[in-house]
Write a structure and sequence with these properties.
It is built from six helices and 16 strands. Strands 1, 2, 3, 4, 13, 14, 15 and 16 form an eight-stranded antiparallel beta sheet that branches. Helix 2 runs antiparallel to helix 5. The two termini are 52 Å apart. The radius of gyration is 29 Å and the shape is elongated. A hairpin with a 2-residue loop joins strand 6 and strand 7. It has two domains: 112 residues, no CATH class; 196 residues, Umud Fragment, subunit A (Ribbon). The protein is of the alpha+beta class and 322 residues long. The longest helix has 47 residues.
Length: 322
């Protein structure tokens, strides 16, 4: 068992190392599921087999010690060697390293697996596509059950949950490469006609209300951007528009239902298909979103982003956001 356990642990380390070095596309959900399964099997083996064996060895030691004392007493010997029986029993009951690193970790790994799969999952914002709502380095929490609980790895929905609403900030698996997680704002739901022409958003023929607010200073770019407050859904949110960028959308990829979109020098108009959503970043001119790579299927939805739990560069950013 020690050799087998060492090989299994080495396999996990090799997988994580190759993922970290970019040698393969990792799947953390799968890795966590396998870790839970393997450590769970060791935990069961510990409870049902290895621990009873160690307890049996302790009982045998106690019986042998008692018989020895009885035999010596029968021979009139009362002075015997002092043996630290408690220490001997403790050593017999102690888990070997290969059980300590598997069965011993199972409760922690199980809790992490359940929390991450069905309740909340942490993410780190890697880019500026959601500025000013979310900044690079924000550590956020995503509600995994708001839109319905999904089975881990398989991503099969087992409860319906609430429908996605326009204005929600959502984490989803990037359609062209599902191993990547993206975060954007829901702009169009199934059946909507979304138009983004000359940098103005219209949904179903109705312009989305927008008003000017003070400019936003981007510390990374070291410049000011025009900032607006837009009301898409129940609550307003802020967005950036760069007047120096053209309204034309370059580099559009081929994607499913592309025939539902019409591109022009002014922008794009799309009819959102059933079971799909149209996503856009709040940093409108610095966001690769549905305008470029298409619609997000419902099967790709991960959860609703709702809370910044840490930003090591600015503790004041901790809190909920729209």
């Amino acid at each position: 068992m020690p050799v087998l356990t060492a090989a299994i642990l080495a396999g996990f380390v090799a997988y994580a190392g190759a993922w970290y070095l970019g040698r393969l596309e990792g799947n953390f959900a799968l890795l966590l599921f396998l870790a839970t399964l393997v450590t769970g099997l060791y935990w069961l083996a510990e409870r049902l087999y290895f621990l009873p064996r160690r307890r049996k060895a302790v009982a045998q030691l106690e019986q042998q010690t008692a018989r020895r004392q009885q035999d010596l007493a029968a021979k009139g010997i009362t002075q015997v060697d002092n043996v630290d029986l408690a220490e001997a029993k403790s050593r017999l009951l102690m888990q070997p390293w290969w059980l300590d690193w598997t069965a011993g970790l199972f409760p922690v790994i199980l809790v992490v697996f359940l929390l991450r799969s069905f309740l909340f999952e942490p993410f780190k914002i890697p880019s500026g596509s959601m500025i000013p709502t979310l900044l690079v380095g924000d550590l956020i929490l995503v509600n995994k059950y708001h839109y319905g609980i999904r089975l881990p790895v398989l991503n099969t929905k087992i409860t319906e949950g609430k429908p996605l609403q326009r204005g929600d900030v959502v984490v989803f698996r990037y359609p062209p490469k599902p191993s990547l997680d993206y975060i954007k704002r829901v702009v169009g739901v199934p059946g909507d006609e979304v138009a983004y022409l000359n940098k103005r958003l219209t949904v179903n023929g109705q312009p989305v209300p927008i008003s000017s607010v003070p400019e936003f200073f981007d510390q990374d770019a070291m410049r000011y951007f025009k900032q607006y407050e837009e009301k898409l859904g129940d609550k307003p949110h802020r967005l950036l528009i760069d007047d120096d960028r053209p309204a034309f959308i370059p580099g559009v990829e081929n994607f499913a239902f592309k025939d539902q979109c019409r591109y022009s020098v002014e922008g794009v108009v799309c009819k959102v298909p059933e079971g799909n959503y149209f996503m856009m970043g709040d940093n409108r001119d610095n966001s690769l979103d549905s305008r470029y790579w298409g619609f997000v299927p419902d099967a790709n939805i991960v959860g609703k982003a709702f809370f910044i739990w840490m930003n090591f560069g600015s503790f004041g950013r901790i809190g909920a956001f729209n």
